[in-house]
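Quick start: read one record
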Amino acid sequence: MTRENLRPGEKAVSIRTAAEMTGVEIHTLRYWESEFEDFLHPIRTPGGQRRFRGEDIQMILTIRRLVKEEMFSLAGARKWLERQNSKAA
């Protein structure tokens, strides 16, 4: 596994585990990776498999909340995340 983005002791999980942890379907996670490419960055194994870190799981939960609970469109959720990033900067 590529560990360049892992902190010591941090474990990255498979897409299946990430889906189970967040309640988001695997195909949706793949789609969100392209739709939210500025915010969601799972690492890849040498074989190309996705591995999700804690920060990725948190971002998935945020996107899920925005889209499923607060009824944002994907574009609206992206804009909301962009505004949050610019406030933090």
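The mean pLDDT is 91.
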